[in-house]
Amino acid sequence: MKINSVRHIAVLAGVATTLAVTPAPADDVSGSKPVRADSHAPIGVMADHTHKKGEWMLSYRFMRMEMDGNQIGHQEVSPDTIVTTVPNAFAPPPTLRIVPLKMTMDMHMFGVMYAPSDRWTLMAMLNYVTKEMDHVTYQGMMGTTVLGNFTTKSDGLGDTLLSGLYSLRDTPNEKWHINLGVSLPTGDIEETGQVLTPMNTMPTLRLPYAMQLGSGTVDLKPGVTYNGRHDNFTWGAQYTATIRIGENDEGYTLGDANDLTAWAAFSPRAWWSFSGRLAYQQSDSIQGADPNIAGPVQTANPEFYGGSSLLGYLGLNLAGQHGWIRGQRLALEFGAPITQDLNGPQMQRDWSLTLGWQYAF
Q1: What's the pLDDT tens digit per position in 108-124?
Q2: Are 287 and 199 in contact (CB under 8 A)?
Q3: Which of 86, 178, 242, 354 could form a disulfide with 63 if both were Cys (CB 3.0 to 4.6 A apart)?
Q4: Going along the chain, which residue ranges are E strands?
């Protein structure tokens, strides 16, 4: 894990310790709203709750995801297998000659929520994304002689999410709301980087789709969310879809996606809880193609995107109850794949970690 990621974890761990040990003052005059640690879904779930009229919430999430190795369907495959068996869509050469080995993505997510009424909660989320991908290049037109390795990187503003959450039912033990979101194409889709070719040159080229920062299209994000409670137990489920509208300026459309997740949490005390979550993710391959993205690497082929995954998560949630930490919530969630079926060859997910802070007032 890189130094910046360790610093994020260390800072948030320090705040977590403060949440746990800060005593209640004799006279609490804070105007912010106290929350139970399990009053929200795990931190990896977005747009999971609504607010009462006049309430605000600020949030920050840091998410790191790592991918390591490649799969075709359910089967893990080696780089040597890929470069000797998988056809190159941009031949010659006849087979792929560059294979991604590892990818990391860091995402900083800044959010704000406001409820103009008891029925409606408005939400906006701004993202800053950093991606790195390590590759191995094989020499010449065929064979398994390794020429060398290289890394590409992209970073910048991602797409921006605007949502309206409409409350259908809100009781102490059961809540339902619908999610009406739209993603605006503020992320760049023209990122470039230096690439080591099989002919031992280092040109600067348009990076493949996986390394771009946005979709380039306006995307609809409808969904529905349920939350339940009984004593110290909470549970919930959420379904969201991503529906791409039209084709972007570079001539392609990322695949539509469906996400279904369910969770449960237990809170021994109001200030802390732990959670478990399952998530099913499905997405289609890319339609169309960017004429500037080409080469003997799998990430340049629009057909090698999409598939389905079942992921498991464990989480910890802390909530301040008194004084200056009242209304603040700190949470983390760690996840890893249970099974993946990928349109491949495609990089497989290894693990993800989300750390977050929320402040309701």
Answers
A1: 999 999 999 999 999 99
A2: no
A3: 354
A4: 56-73, 75-77, 98-114, 120-138, 146-157, 160-170, 174-184, 192-194, 204-206, 218-230, 233-245, 252-253, 257-269, 272-283, 287-288, 307-319, 328-360
Q: Write out the two tokens for 326.
A: 């009242």
Using DSSP's 3-state secondary structure scheme, residue 256 falls into: coil
The whole-number average pLDDT for the span 263-276 is 95
Pair of tokens at residue 72: 């075709």
CA gap 71, 82 in Å, rounded: 10
Q: Enter the DSSP assignment of 302.
A: G
In order of their start, the domains of the chain are 3-360 (2.40.128.130)
| Phi and psi at residue 9, to the nearest 5° | -65, -40
Paired tokens of 318: 């802390």
pTM of the model: 0.87
Token digits for 253? 């459309």
Beta-carbon contacts of residue 230 (< 8 Å; ≥ 6 apart): 173
Residue type, 340: Q
Report strand pairing: 56-73 vs 328-360.
antiparallel
